[in-house]
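does this look right to u?? iron/sulfur cluster version
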Amino acid sequence: MKEARYYRKLDNNLVQCTICPRKCVIKPGEAGFCRTRINKNGVLYSLVYGVVSSIAIDPVEKKPLFHFYPGSPTLSISTIGCTFKCPWCQNWHISQVDATKADLSFYDNYAPEDIIEYAKRTESPSISITYNEPIVWLEYSIDLAKLAKANNIKTIFVTNGYASDEVLDEIASNINAANVDIKCFSEETYRKYIKGDLKPVLEFTEYLKKKGVHVETTYLIIPGLNDSPDEIRQYCKWHYEHLGPETPLHFSKFYPQYKYTSALPTPVETLENAWKIAKEEGLYYVYTGNVPGHKYENTYCPECGKEVIRRYGFYITKWNLDEQNRCKFCGAKIHISGEKWKEAPRYWWLI
Ligand code: SF4
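got this back:
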């Protein structure tokens, strides 16, 4: 247990957590909605500081980040808990754990210094806080990001984007890249299924972009829930207007899991139609995910239309850019942050 950093004390030993837009007011002896923070005698504590549920090396493309140091390995870590309750969560076995009831000794405990040491030992140029929600772990995520910066290591958030206005700057000024999950483009669906709101997610994503963080977004298409062409077009229009045409957008294939097993897997045709809608709306870099080998996993030059990066799943199989990330066919600049990883990654297994 570590005293939380982002909260305020109220009268009668009440506390208010200020991490996510829910801003839970928590009574003594009780926990917030995410079940990772408890009020003990008027002091708010994080139960998950240093609690690590998973640690692995992934290709950065798996986050997915296709335009950030392409081909590089990223040390990926997670804790438990989440600010959302998505019934289709693929990592529900860690995201939906109630930290107030869990046996926390079951998980590893690492100081931020230990994670930096792992990153150096495995020659990972970045650390991703992923699998569950980095914002629910904010004290630890930010301590780690600051230490990473001091060691010339990048920090990536793979996030639901549900951050309060009071922590936006803390996040934006300490991380280098983010993939933000846009669950749908409907407030009603956010409230009904996810128990959250869309507006703060959009504001967070736009804020990161404006502050110079490398941003990509993912939209998991769930049949019957968020797959209408109109909803997808509305999201693409927002994406173009607020993040710019150069910000990559990933449409991901859904597979039934956790509590949401009534829908079938997303047909490939639905993903292809979403890709076409995004292109019609002017986005440069649009991808389909969870369909390895599909041509829409590749990057096409927005100027000449030629294939400049070919991928299979999370791996780059062809690279047609020069040293300045320009198209080898027409010389157009391809929007990529950082250079391609030069070496063959050596540590793809679990630590
Ligand atoms: S992180 Fe969000 S859900 Fe959790 S206690 Fe704080 S305000 Fe509540």
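The mean pLDDT is 96. idk if thats expected tbh
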